[in-house]
């Protein structure tokens, strides 16, 4: 059994889920899976993936897990009561042959509150099933050597005392066992440079800090849930602030591209939120624009945290640290490059929300390949509303 706990997911799933419980309990959504790799055939493993998802849907939160979640300062007691009754509804997920050669189709439809936890474990299942069938004798020593070389870049440098990195790689990990080894190794060897993990189960098991705030799906859903489309980003940030009252104050910046984000992220949000997270586009340009934006709104960027999490490697994170040293706080979330770097090509798998309450929703980031929407007319309209260039 690949997924042994419902906590084996990213923290931001729970922080968003709590907002859904309190503000959008009736929302209905649809998610769709996509593998961006070419030439990968997952169809031979379809039954195995289905069996693992069936086992996932039998899981419940234990009392110890609920107590751990309840001990996080931003988690509320009524949410814990709800999780005590929760399980993933198997009737809401379908796994079938895809239309393209080698492709499988995974779709999730149902209550947002009851389906939000599918994404991360399902992607982890697809990854682990694929790699345990195609790499039956993994080169663990190669993986350990690569991990050691990454950590040495930080530990042997004299100018990286403020460098902080977190592990963000649950959804695309090689396996759960390797994921756990990465986290425990970083905790043991990196000291204060290791900020924590996005994975709640590993955070609980190994006494490290769980990290995360919001994901793209939250801002996407607000396209259908807010008062009007143009105000959906502002609405999402306002509802978040209402729920967390200044806690979990990192805003995601790339659902509509950087320019649209800066138009909405006014002086109020600059002061209210602790910082922002980069997840597409040129990270150096993004950082410079964020710093200039803070300064133009009379906010000292040195008091704000810029988090970088887009396809990061250690050399790139180190370069970013040096670029912005003394100008703002920086932190880094590294995913696939930590949890699936053993010498094999990782799967570029995603599962994105494509509808909310029957309406199309989309992410239009600064990286065109990350756009995912099956309604071209809606995507065109969204670009017009947010003054984005045509695709």
UniProtKB/TrEMBL annotation:
Domain Nicotinate phosphoribosyltransferase N-terminal: residue ranges: 7-127
A Pfam family of this chain: NAPRTase
Pathway assigned to this chain's UniProt record: Cofactor biosynthesis; NAD(+) biosynthesis; nicotinate D-ribonucleotide from nicotinate: step 1/1
Modified residues (Phosphohistidine): 216
InterPro entries with a match to the protein in the record: N/Namide_PRibTrfase, NAPRTase_N, Nic_PRibTrfase, Nic_PRibTrfase-Fam, Nicotinate_pribotase-like_C
GO cellular-component term (any): cytosol
This enzyme's EC code(s): 6.3.4.21
Enzyme superclass (EC): ligase
Domain Nicotinate/nicotinamide phosphoribosyltransferase: 163-389
GO BP: any one term: NAD+ biosynthetic process via the salvage pathway
Keywords: Glycosyltransferase, Ligase, Phosphoprotein, Pyridine nucleotide biosynthesis, Transferase
Keyword Ligase found: yes
GO MF: glycosyltransferase activity; nicotinate phosphoribosyltransferase activity
PTMs per UniProt: Transiently phosphorylated on a His residue during the reaction cycle. Phosphorylation strongly increases the affinity for substrates and increases the rate of nicotinate D-ribonucleotide production. Dephosphorylation regenerates the low-affinity form of the enzyme, leading to product release.
Reactions catalysed: 5-phospho-alpha-D-ribose 1-diphosphate + nicotinate + ATP + H2O = nicotinate beta-D-ribonucleotide + ADP + phosphate + diphosphate
HAMAP family in the cross-refs: NAPRTase
Listed NCBIfam families: NAPRTase, PRK05321.1
Family named by the database record: Belongs to the NAPRTase family.
General function of this protein: Catalyzes the synthesis of beta-nicotinate D-ribonucleotide from nicotinate and 5-phospho-D-ribose 1-phosphate at the expense of ATP.
Listed name of the protein: Nicotinate phosphoribosyltransferase
């Amino acid at each position: 059994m690949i997924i042994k706990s419902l906590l084996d997911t990213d923290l931001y799933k729970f922080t968003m889920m709590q907002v859904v419980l309190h503000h959008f309990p009736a929302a209905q959504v649809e998610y769709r899976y996509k593998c961006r790799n070419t030439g990968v055939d997952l169809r031979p493993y379809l039954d195995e993936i289905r069996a693992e998802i069936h086992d996932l849907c039998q899981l419940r939160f234990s009392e110890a897990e609920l107590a751990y979640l309840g001990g996080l300062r931003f988690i509320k007691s009524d949410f814990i009561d709800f999780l005590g009754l929760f399980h993933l509804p198997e009737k809401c997920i379908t796994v079938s042959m895809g239309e393209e050669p080698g492709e499988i189709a995974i779709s999730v439809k149902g209550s947002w509150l009851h389906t939000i936890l599918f994404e991360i474990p399902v992607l982890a299942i697809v990854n682990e099933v694929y790699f345990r069938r195609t790499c039956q004798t993994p080169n663990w020593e190669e993986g350990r050597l690569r991990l050691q070389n990454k950590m040495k870049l930080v530990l042997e440098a004299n100018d990286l005392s403020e460098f902080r990195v977190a592990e963000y790689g649950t959804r695309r990990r090689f396996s759960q066992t390797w994921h756990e080894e990465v986290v425990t190794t970083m905790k043991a060897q990196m000291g204060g440079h290791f900020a924590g993990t996005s994975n709640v189960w590993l955070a609980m098991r190994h006494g490290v800090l769980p990290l995360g705030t919001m994901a793209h799906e939250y801002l996407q859903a607000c396209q259908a849930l807010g008062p009007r489309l143009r105000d959906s980003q502002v609405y999402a940030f306002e509802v978040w602030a209402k729920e967390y009252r200044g806690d979990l104050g990192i805003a995601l910046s790339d659902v509509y591209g950087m320019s649209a984000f800066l138009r909405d992220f006014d002086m109020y949000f600059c002061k209210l939120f602790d910082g922002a997270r980069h997840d597409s586009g040129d990270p150096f340009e993004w950082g410079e624009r964020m710093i200039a934006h803070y300064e133009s709104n009379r906010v000292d960027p040195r008091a704000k945290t810029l988090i970088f999490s887009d396809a990061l490697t250690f050399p790139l994170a180190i370069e970013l640290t040096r670029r912005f040293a003394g100008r703002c706080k920086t932190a880094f979330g590294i995913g696939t490059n930590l949890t699936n770097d053993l010498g094999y090509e990782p799967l570029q798998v995603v599962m994105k929300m494509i509808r909310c309450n029957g309406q199309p929703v989309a992410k239009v980031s600064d990286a065109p390949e990350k756009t995912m929407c099956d309604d071209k007319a809606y995507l065109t309209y969204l670009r017009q509303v947010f003054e984005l260039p045509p695709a």
